[in-house]
Amino acid sequence: MSAREKSLEERFHTFLDILSRKLKDTPAVERISREDREVEERAFKVLLSTILSARTKDEITLEISKRLFKRIKTPQDLVDIDEKELERLIYPVGFYRTKARYLKKLGEMLIEEFQGKVPRRLEDLIRLPGVGRKTGNLVITLAYDDYGICVDTHVHRICNRWEYIDTETPEESEMELRKKLPKRYWKIINTLLVDYGKRVCSPVPRCHLCPEEIREICPYYHKLQGIEKVLEKYNFKKVSKNNIPEEKGTYILKIKLKEPRIITYGKNRKRFKRGYYFYVGSAMGKSNNLRRRIERHLREDKKLHWHIDYLLQYGTVKEVYVSREAVECEVARDLSFLKSIEGFGSSDCSCKSHLFFMKS
Ligand code: SF4
Questions:
Q1: Which residues cross the membrane (predicted)?
Q2: 17 Cα–ligand 1 center, Å
Q3: Count of helix runs (H) and strand runs (E) in the chain
């Protein structure tokens, strides 16, 4: 069986196996977790360094955590330290003022409610100030060596790109992963995907940095390649929104919807997921040209006319492609390997749709 004939699940597991093989750098919090054998001390340090690590570069997290642990060894130390001094100690981690405030409250709560110890249960951990499910799961896995799945924005995005799950939020992703991810990956998935999500499979993926053995089995990569092929086949050119040619032809709008939305268009009411939408239209009529048609779509104060205009109320046009060829329906047919959204066909064609969805 070739790599691409494997099921989506098998491919994703293979991807994780490849990343495990290649992993070189251990993230800061994991390195900290390996330094203490004594479980209570380890849990306290992991908790603090995980809070520091949010929106902070790994090398800063490591350096500042070490500085902090020289001065703060117990929850009582957090209670005793002056907040301004704590701010100075943890500067320049991201949101250091807010984090100093959380850490002060954290110290109080650990003493008052948990006998000065870091709780082991996720339900208790997420009650602590500055601790969400992501931090809580990291403490469970790294400090207590229990099973947890730490899902942040990178894990959420990459698992969805690989179509391993179909979810809208990191919380939903955690629940889905708990149902289907084999336990051997629970503790390492965060380490593997956070690093990869920052360097390579970032919000705008840098697929050229991905090894061939990963690209070969990545469903997202094949979709991106499929789109490129269609653009090439019909001689599409990317144009600036301010420089659309006054010619007849076919156009594609790449629209980004940042948040899911329920949108009413015509007689339809539908929930649109966050992600990218590709709309194929044409400007071939006598009194029409690409500039007139596309600028009309782009105007903020437009009268809602075509169904796509209802989506454009909430989405942002990120890219515009134009071709001089009259190929609207051919392009729509060739893009149908993406998910088509019904109700967006042209009035004079029998296509199922001219609007296609792809996750971001
Ligand atoms: S090929 Fe592209 S989309 Fe796939 S994992 Fe690599 S960077 Fe991400």
A1: none
A2: 15
A3: 17, 8
Residue 208 lies in a domain: no
Q: Is the domain of 194 the same as that of 282? A: no
Q: Where are the beta strands (DSSP E) in the chain?
A: 237-239, 249-257, 261-265, 268-272, 275-283, 316-323, 339-340, 355-358
229 and 192 part of one domain: no
* Cα distance between residue 194 and residue 175, in whole Å: 18
Query: Where would I find the H helices in 148-188?
Result: 153-161, 170-180
Residue 205 near ligand 1, beta carbon < 6 Å: yes
**Domain of residue 133, CATH code:** 1.10.340.30
Q: Domain check: are 240 and 195 in the same one?
A: no
What's the total number of domains in the chain?
2
Domain housing 301: 225-358
Give the span between the Cα atoms of 173 and 192, in whole angstroms.
16
Whether 328 and 294 share a structural domain: yes
CA dihedral 67, 68, 73, 77 (to 10 degrees): 140
Which of 275, 239, 225 has the alpha carbon at shortest distance from 255? Answer: 275
User: pLDDT tens digits for 265-322?
Assistant: 878 899 999 999 999 999 987 778 999 999 999 988 877 878 898 999 999 999 999 9
The CB of 64 under 6 Å from ligand 1? The reply is no
Give the position, in ligand 1's atom list, of the atom nearest the Cα of 200.
7
Same domain, 232 and 95: no
Atom of ligand 1 nearest to the CA of 161: 3
Peptide bond into 245 cis (omega under 30): no
Q: Is residue 125 situated within a structural domain?
A: yes
How far apart, in whole angstroms, are the C-alpha atoms of residue 130 and residue 28? Answer: 19
Q: Is 241 domain-assigned?
A: yes
Model confidence at 116, pLDDT cuts 50, 70, 90, reads: very high
